[in-house]
């Protein structure tokens, strides 16, 4: 997903809308808020937006259930990076 903005000091990552090649009538956007330096699920808030293009061409909101999966993926990658950069 293309990044719209990232603020390492404020702890905010925002993507631009992304349409997967296999489903061009859908698009997704993700906002990630890093609330704490601790690598725990309560230190991170993920908002996922999902829209579907209607027959008239307008985008309408659609349900999405993957926010917790994205939180887990971000936390796992952060842990891996921490371990890789830790001094022996």
- Structural class per helix/strand content? alpha+beta
Stretches where pLDDT falls below 50 for ≥5 residues? none
**Helix content bin:** 10-25%
Number of strands: 5
Average pLDDT score: 89
Quick rundown:
The protein has 88 residues and is an alpha+beta fold. It contains 1 helix and 5 strands.
Write the layout of secondary structure elements.
Layout: E1 3-7, E2 12-15, E3 26-34, E4 44-53, E5 59-62, H1 67-85
Describe this structure in words.
The chain is an alpha+beta fold and 88 residues long. Helix content is 22%, strand content 36%. The chain has one helix and five strands; from the N terminus they run βββββα. It has one helix at 67-85; strands at 3-7, 12-15, 26-34, 44-53, 59-62. A hairpin with a 4-residue loop joins strand 1 and strand 2.
Q: Which features characterize this protein?
A:
22% helix; alpha+beta; 88 residues
